[in-house]
Write a structure and sequence with these properties.
- Helix content is 35%, strand content 16%.
- By secondary structure, it is α/β, with parallel strands linked by helices.
- Helix 4 crosses helix 5 (102-115) and helix 5 packs parallel to helix 7 (145-154).
- The longest helix is centred in the middle third of the chain and has 14 residues, at 102-115.
- The radius of gyration is 20 Å and the shape is globular.
- 36% of the residues are buried.
Length: 237
């Protein structure tokens, strides 16, 4: 049955269809610019600098590594995150990850790729791998947020995104309610990898304790990867 629209509603529909209405900032609702984020909100995003170059942990001053990495290095050799997990980032990432807000994911991916374009860890990287979801979780969510971000990071450098050689073979309870030690136990045996070579880059949305990336990295190294590095949108303080 056709829907009757007022002239004003029809005009708005035409403007939307042709992209003529101004973008709105996904944080504050103000008129946005090219990336649907106003200049004030983009400038206020909490940059993750200085940070540990090994695990991306926010630091008070620059240092070769944080205390935790000196005592017990993770499986990945280098890591970076564009922002700290606070402020607007702590609003946008959950919207993207749990509430199908793909616009937030697109904006964060594009901005993070631009911010980390000169990261030294890009040198020698051959493939980009998103941290995989178990098929049950993927079925519930409908998409893997790490895959969307991996595509954003890989595109500017023309790197291939490897969707198949790292798999999550064991469904694990959500990490959010677990402490660091429990997270490590929770992830043992969660991943499986095909034979690997060279330097690979793992991508996830947020690094909290680093347990997920560390377990995935160990799996890739056991499968033959020469080195594993990691990127994320945000790092928890």
């Amino acid at each position: 049955m056709p829907v009757n629209r007022t002239p004003a509603a029809a005009r708005i529909g035409r403007l939307l269809s042709f992209g003529l209405l101004p973008a709105r900032c996904i944080v504050c609702g103000a008129p946005g610019h090219a990336r649907d984020l106003c200049e004030a909100c983009e400038a206020a995003l909490p940059r993750n600098h200085p940070a540990c170059p090994r695990c991306a942990l926010p630091l008070a001053v620059e240092a070769p590594a944080c205390g935790a990495c000196l005592a017990d290095p993770p499986g990945f050799s280098l890591a970076a995150a564009a922002w700290r997990y606070e402020g607007a980032i702590a609003q946008l990432l959950p919207r993207f990850k749990f509430h199908r807000d793909l616009a937030s994911g697109r904006v964060l991916g594009e901005l993070a790729a631009h911010r980390l374009v000169d990261w030294p860890g890009w040198v020698g990287v051959e493939r980009v791998l998103p941290v995989p979801l178990h098929r049950a979780r993927l079925g519930q969510r409908g998409y893997n947020q790490a895959l969307e971000l991996a595509r954003a990071f890989a595109a500017p450098r023309g790197l291939p995104v490897d969707l198949r050689s790292l798999r999550r073979v064991r469904a694990t309870p959500p990490q959010t309610t677990l402490d660091a030690a429990a997270r490590r136990r929770n992830l043992r045996g969660a991943f499986q990898a095909d034979p690997q070579t060279g330097i690979v880059l793992l991508v996830d949305d947020v690094i909290t304790t680093g347990a997920t990336l560390a377990e995935a990295a160990r799996t890739l190294l056991r499968a033959g990867a020469g080195e594993v590095r990691a990127l994320a949108i945000a790092r928890a303080p």
